[in-house]
Here is the input.
Amino acid sequence: MAATPRFRKNAAEASPAETETESGTAGEPGGTHPVDETLPPLRMFTSGLQHVAAMYAGVVAPPMIVGPAVGLDAKETAFLMGASLFTAGIATLLQTLGFWRIGARLPFVNGVSFAGVTPMIAIGKDRGHDGIAVIFGAIIVAGLLGFALAPYFCKLVRFFPPVVTGTVITLIGVSLLPVAFNWSQGGNETADDYGSTTNILMAAVTLVIVLALRKLLRGFLQQIAILLGLVVGTLIAIPAGITDFGALGDADVVGFPTPFHFGAPQFEIAAIISMCIVMLVCMTESTADMLALGKIVGRPADERTIEGGLRADTLGSAISPLFNGFMCSAFAQNIGLVAMTKVRSRFVVAAGGVILVLLGLVPVAASVIALVPLPVLGGAGIVLFGSVAASGIQTLATAALEKGENALIVAAAVGIGLIPIAAPDFYHAFPDDLLVVLDSGISTGCVVAIVLNLAFNHWGRTPDTGPDEEAAEGEPQEDSRALPVAH
Here is the structure.
């Protein structure tokens, strides 16, 4: 039987030595912990805005993918983006401020999860408002299930070592790369200019701009290199005649994401199963992120912290469809921002959550994002989605693939997960209800990785297996957790 990681019931039980991090001590004895500090208003706002800038592209990208895929027009897609900003703000406030036993109360940013993009496209493709309604119904059920499982899931983290999480995160990035390639060609296969040299060159120019900005800029500006690349690329695209200003002209200056704007949620079993699998993936990623963030800020994430964080994740996901938003999970790039800036206050991130809510209440702001031509977005998307896959590979580097059958687990899970990408019609003879799951490489790859990890690393283990051997076979170590990305 694999060894179970030990979690403290209370962060207060940690010794002073354990609460020190590379960024300094947890705080003076008897004083306010840096996580609970409130900063001057101006610094609170600018630091919160920096968190928003670091995550903004990741929040609006999923609705920009899903909206056109299910058949929404530019104005409806812009509405969906505004709703995603609004619900990301609510989820972030649940995490940072919290109430009762909900919320990690750490500088923990939440937003729309990339993990659900491919399954949502499979669920709602070309079904218009009905497709969105089915997606929202499945997310509500998945969120409520995750909320109920939170007290137990935090005890099951040993079944999700880096060999599983790394595989799933890699598949998320690889599954989304074809979307970036499609955008780079123009996005609409029936259009006359689809795959034209103008579109592809525009994507290439944007890609080069993003890479150059990442290389040349430092600090805050480097964090928003993708956003700056989108702005520059869009400006260059205007004289090329591939920028559509239609959505901006139709957008309201102020508006509220009307509850169930696309109709009452609909509940289909296959869609619910698919999104429940995605929810388990999001809970796994969020758990790993909380463990890493707790170490960075000097407040180790104990079992209760993880439970509260998962409850905030899942509750935020369950209420998001009410305001036309998608499933929420952790944004790991913001954890890196905390480590870089050394600003550990959760109230800074809460300020970022308020900014997200305000942006969601200004539809014209979301419409400005819709001005970005798809070829420009495709060029940036190659970096954005590729970085997700790179993060998964980084996680796999900690999985001891040279030991046991871990390499075989990754090989089988990635191979099966790539089937819908490499051979889209592979499952064409299967029932439609099964296709919702099978057509998502993320869902199938996740299931295969979990089952094989259980089969090779848990089931049938001899009682005398030592902890060192178990750790070598893929169990996560307390001090060596990676930072998986959800978007």
